Amino acid sequence: xxxxxxxxxxxxxxxxxxxxxxxxxxxxxxxxxxxxxxxxxxxxxxxxxxxxxxxxxxxxxxxxxxxxxxxxxxxxxxxxxxxxxxxxxxxxxxxxxxxxxxxxxxxxxxxxxxxxxxxxxxxxxxxxxxxxxxxxxxxxxxxxxxxxxxxxxxxxxxxxxxxxxxxxxxxxxxxxxxxxxxxxxxxxxxxxxxxxxxxxxxxxxxxxx
Length: 209
Hints:
mainly alpha
């Protein structure tokens, strides 16, 4: 690929898109809030968030369109992660984030009540957990011991807790999963900031210089 094409791609996924993850964390709250406003029957401890976009929902397009837009933000953020990666493991983590974004979009395309819905919903969270875990390992290899340990713990221990605990509803466990992803994207701001301002502060362990 020509250098001009590479520069163009880098310009597309420039500094503002490093905020796409946090923008997504805010957008999901906004989408859920307005979807619940239009569906006063929704009970957090009894339903699933997907019910807000299912057959029994009023104005289901609020929730489903919101998820499609959110998936788009996740995909853009994944491109930024791939650009910022400084070793192969981090790049793979970015690729898993991209897959998570695709599955998140598909949740909006195939809402509750459709055959693929359960599959795409589960696989969004699986892909997100794998992405966080792989990125945790990647930044451990690049010298971020504390953040790497936290991310790896989020990606591995978080799902174990989700499986072990008896949750009152699907919405509650979904909120837990969303919170873990939100913690990750917020903490990743620090990684992006340091690599932009002090690239010499990071290095790649166990790879040829």
